[in-house]
Design brief:
Strand content: under 5%
Order of helices and strands: HHHHHHHHHHHHHHHHHHHHHH
Number of strands: 0
Radius of gyration: 23 Å
Oligomer: single chain
Structural class: mainly alpha
Distance between the termini: 30 Å
Length: 483
């Protein structure tokens, strides 16, 4: 029976297993793409147009600060969303919480595109903007934990890392899509037209993705692991309280590992400001740094599935530990390249750091985090701990600006040192965690769980891969037969 302990209950029908694994991965991919498309078009608009449209001030700096503050509000709402949506996912099911997250994010984003301006309704405009941003932050808090848990619980044994990595591939794809829609509009539309109505287009396009996401997500079955919890009456009434009691150590580990978001902060926020803001005196052109995150995400999309698959072969911990330490060291080189005004070297180092090495962490945490927790509290424990860690990193741009202001000496050493120290914390947290990739789904979250012996694991993994091939063949045969 060991062979079927991590599989869908109807293993006699491999085509169904294959379809559900793929549908779960597609559901996680498109949901994450939608959530982060929405999140990042807001970030872009907050920098480019919102200061003029939703805020009024005789001092343009005040308007800019106020606009960017509404972006930060989204992070404030994340821990709250994690508590509520994590609870919903552990008590009402992974499928239900993912559909809820998608509609909350999609509809709030569309509503931003319909908002009146400050000139039309006065202070009501920024008030509504802040409310919608709070809803966005609330919704995004449940997406990755819910999607990762759903994919993990549908995935065949030995392939959880590969399938779960598609959650983060969707995140990167959503950012690419956001840039692909927003940047051409900003570049080629006349300023008057863009500021009047052109900026609304990316927000209103969320409607298309909502429809596509709903069609895919409604076709995914609830996970067998959650359904079994319900059949046995083991669904907790207060999963987060149970998680705090039973899994607080692993939650603390996830908080520390989630601090790896410092790499995104250094690459896309502080690094860009250091390179282009006149006060720092570096003088890089803004267009260069608008495209660096796009290129990095394109690279990441290509690499993520390979890293996820590698984690199924060698384990989660080595990749997260190596990725954390290597990206921390590369941050020194990246900031140094900026400091010597070497544009090609800065681009290469940012792509290497963000697009390649960082994926050792980024592609693996969607499987590693939920594997640290049992089924009954998985979504709550991951959502709360991951979002607390990520929210802490939202404070880092202000810290970097405070300790390395314009005119200060040794900026690469100062900011790089803080970054490396944070990545060391993340690596130590991963070192202290137990390895999970060879543990059966039913045993995940148990500190004393015994992993499957390496030879047996390899056999079961190969069986999963063969079953996937049989599933494809069976599915094709059923299609030809008109079934």
């Amino acid at each position: 029976m060991a062979e079927i302990s991590d599989r869908a209950p109807d293993l006699a029908h491999p085509s169904h297993v294959v379809r559900q694994s793929k549908k779960a991965a597609a559901s996680g991919w498109i949901g994450s793409a939608l959530e982060y498309y929405d999140f990042f078009i807001y970030a872009t608009a907050a920098s480019l147009v919102f200061p003029q449209i939703f805020f009024t001030s005789n001092n343009p700096t005040v308007a800019i600060v106020a606009s960017l503050a509404t972006y930060g509000v989204g992070y404030v709402a994340r821990p709250i969303g994690a508590f509520v949506l994590g609870h919903w996912g552990d008590t009402h099911g992974r499928k239900n919480v993912l559909i809820l997250c998608m509609f909350l994010m999609g509809l709030s984003t569309m509503a931003v595109g319909l908002l009146p301006t400050y000139q039309q309704v006065g202070v009501l405009a920024p008030t509504l903007l802040v409310i919608l941003r709070l809803i966005q932050g609330f919704a995004v808090a449940g997406e990755i934990s819910g999607a990762s848990s759903m994919i993990l619980e549908h995935a065949p044994f030995g392939r959880r890392g590969f399938y779960a990595s598609f959650t983060l591939q969707g995140v990167q794809a959503g950012q690419i899509l956001a840039a692909a829609v927003f940047l051409p509009l900003a570049a080629y539309m006349p300023d008057e037209a863009f500021n009047s109505w052109g900026w609304r287009i990316p927000f209103l396009l969320s409607f298309i993705v909502i429809i596509a996401g709903y069609i895919i997500r409604r076709e995914v079955d609830e996970t067998p692991a959650f359904a079994e919890e319900g059949e046995h009456g083991e669904i907790p009434r207060a999963p987060i309280i149970q998680a705090f009691k039973e899994n607080w150590q692993d939650m603390l580990r996830v908080i520390c590992m989630a601090l790896m978001n410092v790499i995104a902060v250094v690459t896309a926020i502080f690094g860009a400001a250091y390179a282009v803001q006149p006060a720092y005196g570096i003088g890089f052109h803004k267009d260069v740094y608008l495209w660096i995150p796009v290129l990095g995400n394109i690279l990441a999309v290509l690499i993520i599935p390979f890293v996820g698959n590698l984690s199924d072969k060698i384990g989660r911990r080595p990749l997260i530990i190596g990725g954390a330490l290597a990206t921390g060291l590369l941050s020194f080189a990246y900031l140094y390249a900026i400091s010597i005004r070497n544009v090609p070297l800065a681009i290469v180092m940012s792509l290497l750091m963000w697009g390649v090495v960082y994926q050792g962490y980024n592609a693996v945490f969607p499987s590693f985090y939920p594997e640290l927790f049992p089924t009954r509290t998985r979504v709550s424990a991951m959502a709360v701990s991951q979002n607390v860690g990520t929210t802490i990193t939202a404070l880092l741009p202000a810290l970097f600006a405070a300790v390395a202001p314009p005119g200060s000496a040794n900026i690469p050493l100062t900011v790089g040192g803080i970054t490396f120290a944070i990545t060391v914390v993340a690596a130590l947290a991963a070192m202290s965690a137990r390895e999970t990739y060879r543990v059966h789904l039913r045993d995940l979250g148990r500190p004393g769980a015994v992993p499957v012996p390496k030879e047996e694991y390899e056999r079961l993994r190969e069986q999963s891969i063969r079953d996937a091939g049989l599933g494809k063949t069976s599915e094709a045969g059923m299609h030809k037969a008109g079934i």
